[in-house]
Design goal:
Layout (H helix, E strand, L loop, with lengths): L9 E5 L4 E9 L3 E9 L7 E2 L2 E2 L2 H14 L6 E6 L4 E9 L3 H15 L7 E11 L2 E13 H13 L3 E7 H12 L7 E7 L4 E7 L2 E8 L3 H12 L3 H8 L10 H7 L1 H17 L7 E5 L8 H9 L2 E4 L6 E2 L10 H4 L4 H7 L8
Parallel strand pairs: 1-6, 3-16, 6-10, 11-14, 14-15
Antiparallel strand pairs: 1-2, 2-3, 4-5, 7-9, 8-9, 11-12, 12-13
Length: about 350
């Protein structure tokens, strides 16, 4: 199932650079406490463009992460993204949820560029279409079955049980909506910037109006600096992350590498405004490991003229500071956003 209600689950965020695990304990009044978390060592190209190239390394990394961090629960929620996942908002004749089930599958055949029998499909009715009360908007999510099955097998090979398979963009949204009060009129662009992929999700009043995965991420910044300054991959990575004190003028390089990201956001904003579905972006929230790249929030903030910030998915999640062993929580928390959003899921939940 693509979306997944009430049992203790561990969020497992399998990224192309590292694997993140988050265990949350439910508290009264629908609040949570961070019980355990962990981030694996870098995966050394074990996952490239969303494709798992070294299953043994990935399963060993997952097993070691759970063992080293003392995570005993074996029921996990994981997420997929990339080219094999399609998220699309469609408009169709208004139907009850029961009647919509078959109709959506028929509609999906018109919108999914794969044989409908080869995809796992889920949907959520968003409400009436803005310009025609006789029609409704439906959020359609499709993922190639072989990818979902392979992903589930990978988790089982690591000795775990996949309870839910979600989508990265929605997990990030789930984490931030649990930690921030967004006004109904706010149009929020959530950018989960990973090593290889950036998940863009533009939301208003909890509805995802535009969702897209871009082949832009931290590796894009690192490769741009390598080309510009003739650095090794390790030297470039340290410089881009602000760890080397290299003294290099990286701002123009980072801004150039971010250009594709900004252009995609501008096009999404133009589309939403033209269609009348949502107004201008009023706030940009960044998460993921590469969101911490110096210069990225400043560039996007200037480009769009709106508040741009690194998200903190632990704003309303309590935790013992000793869990971070002296690390700067604000440098770790953004990396845990998707994992936290996944750990908040419950089997049976819709988006």
């Amino acid at each position: 199932m693509l979306f997944g209600k009430k049992q203790s689950l561990v969020g497992l965020d399998i990224g192309s650079h590292t694997i993140k695990a988050v265990e949350l304990e439910p508290l009264p009044n629908r609040t949570f406490r961070l019980a355990r978390w962990g981030i694996s060592a870098p995966l050394a190209e074990a996952i490239v463009d969303g494709e798992i190239m070294d299953r043994q390394l990935v399963t060993d990394s997952i097993s070691n992460l759970f063992e080293s961090r003392g995570i005993r629960s074996r029921s996990v929620v994981a997420a997929v993204s990339g080219r094999a996942v399609i998220v699309k908002k469609i408009t169709m004749n208004r139907l009850s949820a029961e009647d919509a089930q078959q109709a959506v599958y028929w509609e999906a055949e018109q919108h999914v560029p794969y044989d409908i029998n080869d995809v796992s499909l889920d949907f959520e009715i968003l409400g009436a279409a803005p310009n025609d009360p006789k029609q409704m908007q439906v959020l359609l999510v499709a993922a190639k079955k072989d990818m979902v099955m392979s992903f589930g097998d990978l988790i089982r090979e690591a000795g775990l049980s996949p309870a839910v398979v979600d989508v990265d963009s929605f997990a990030a949204q789930n984490a931030l909506e649990a930690n921030y009060d967004f006004a109904p009129a706010d149009v929020i662009a959530i950018l989960n910037i990973g090593a290889e992929i950036t998940n863009i999700n533009i939301i208003q009043a909890g509805v995802p109006y535009f969702t897209k995965d871009l082949q832009v991420g931290g590796n894009t910044f690192i490769e741009a600096a390598q080309r510009k300054f003739g650095l090794s991959q390790a030297e470039s990575a340290a410089a881009v992350r602000g760890e080397s004190g290299s003294g290099l003028e990286l701002t123009p390089v980072i801004e150039g590498a971010c250009e594709g990201l900004a252009t995609a956001l501008e096009r999404a904003q133009a589309y939403l405004r033209t269609s009348g579905e949502a107004g201008a972006i009023s706030r940009i929230m960044l998460c993921g490991g590469s969101a911490l790249t110096p210069g990225v929030p400043e560039f996007l903030g200037r480009r769009f003229g709106v508040a741009t910030e690194i998200a903190n998915p632990l704003t309303r999640v309590s935790y013992d500071p000793a869990l971070f062993a002296g690390q700067d929580v604000m440098k770790v928390a953004p990396l845990l956003t998707v994992g936290i959003g996944l750990a908040l899921r419950r089997v049976g939940d819709k988006r």
